[in-house]
Amino acid sequence: MHVTAMDVIDLSGQLTELVVSWTGEPPRRDLPVAFNQGNHLRAQQLGRGAWLAGTVELPGAANDPAKVATAVERFLGEHDALRARFTVGDHPRQDVFEPDQVSVRPRLVGRVWHSFVTSLINERCHAGRVPGLFFGLLGSTLVCAFDHAHADALTIDLVLRRMAELYADPDSAARPGEDFAERCCAEDGTGSILADLTAERRAELMGVWQDFFAATDGALPAFPIPLGEGRDPQHTTVIHILDADAAETALSSRPFATILAELAAAVADAGGPDRLATLIPIHTRGGSRSGWHNTAGWMVSNAPVVVEAGNPDSADAWLRHAAGLSTLPLEQVLAECAPQFVSEDIFMVSYLDYRKLGPALPGAQHISAVTSTDTAQLWFSRGHHGLELRVRYPARPAADAVIGTVIDGLVRRLRPGGTVVDMRVRAS
């Protein structure tokens, strides 16, 4: 899986849209949404929508789009989160269509350029009147896109694997999963279905956050080196840092702790502090045997990390709390700790090892929309090809200089003697 963004790839070619249609009204109405969904849907009122997409190669699909449409229809029937219609406003809610209310048919569009595909996904993947989805074939490349309210990063991987499976074997059995809307109803900001926390355990987990905010003067930190003022359209940089063998050597048995420590050192070398405070996304799907791993939806929380430059032990001390913190609702953290927001977006660092999710898929990409931002966010992805990094930050000279220096320093630390390999593709 290559983790990228719409401004650094090229999606052009002969397009067949797999048009998704909905009939009737959803029988499940006025249901609560998850915390992240609610924040996303409220942000849409300010014009800050976002979507996630993925691609996978389906050999011969260009000659049989009806077969792919059938696979899409079946897949949508398996996941209620992808059949949800959202209310966008101050108090977001969701309605859920039934599987027999969705149909998919191929529609030949013709030769298109990247800008057309971008506009089409922007139009389709917007929460509101109907579920915000897009499916299309560019030759034999299947493109699947979703308003962010429907999906997270693990959902994109799940979608691509299941679509490849259904295309190869239309009769393949669905993997048993859980109902996402029922989870939203069960939790609704009051707790986690993953654990029934005792008062003592809850206090212990809340104490991790309190220690973090004590270290950050009560703030959710922005990127620690100034990137300029205000919010601007984003710039995306995607680089290949290490091949598979080099990643094994450099990252050893604690890859994320090593990455965080070397990133903290690169930030310090660029003029930042000696300790790097940031948030990391953590999934809330539970252990490896949990049925939530086969469920589409937005199941992500955050955990805090304070890393000393070059010291992976300091990162490990925080990372060991991550699994437990996935059971503590962020609503409760924000209400109890009342942190200061020093930037509109959150400075975060993500690490995902796609090798643990299954065999490599041909042409697999995770693609994010291009929006705007006022801070930096970094996604490290590990695959069968090695370690890559995607960075999103404000598109302005001050930020270009800072992020460029930090990335160069990080690459030198992880790959002595190495140079940055830019993976940008000029879009049409």
Can you tell me about this structure?
This protein is of the alpha+beta class and 428 residues long. It has two domains: 2-186, Chloramphenicol acetyltransferase-like domain (Chloramphenicol Acetyltransferase); 191-422, Nonribosomal peptide synthetase, condensation domain (Chloramphenicol Acetyltransferase, 2-Layer Sandwich), CATH 3.30.559.30. Helix content is 32%, strand content 28%. It has twelve helices and 20 strands. The strands form five sheets. The chain has a seven-stranded mixed β-sheet with strand order 1-16-4-9-8-2-7, sandwiched between helices. Helix 8 packs across helix 12. The radius of gyration is 21 Å and the shape is globular.
Structural class: alpha+beta
Strand order of the largest sheet: 1-16-4-9-8-2-7
CATH architectural arrangement of the largest domain = 2-Layer Sandwich
Mean pLDDT: 94
Please give the alpha-carbon distance between the first and last residues. Answer: 23 Å
Radius of gyration computed on alpha carbons: 21 Å
Global shape: globular
- Tally the helices: what do you get? 12
**Structure summary, number of beta strands:** 20
Assigned CATH superfamily of the largest domain: Nonribosomal peptide synthetase, condensation domain
Residues in helices, as a percent range = 25-40%
β-strand amount:
25-35%
Low-confidence blocks of residues: 423-428
CATH class of the largest domain: Alpha Beta
- List the domain count as a whole number: 2
Biggest sheet statistics: 7 strands, mixed
Q: What is CATH's topology name of the largest domain?
A: Chloramphenicol Acetyltransferase
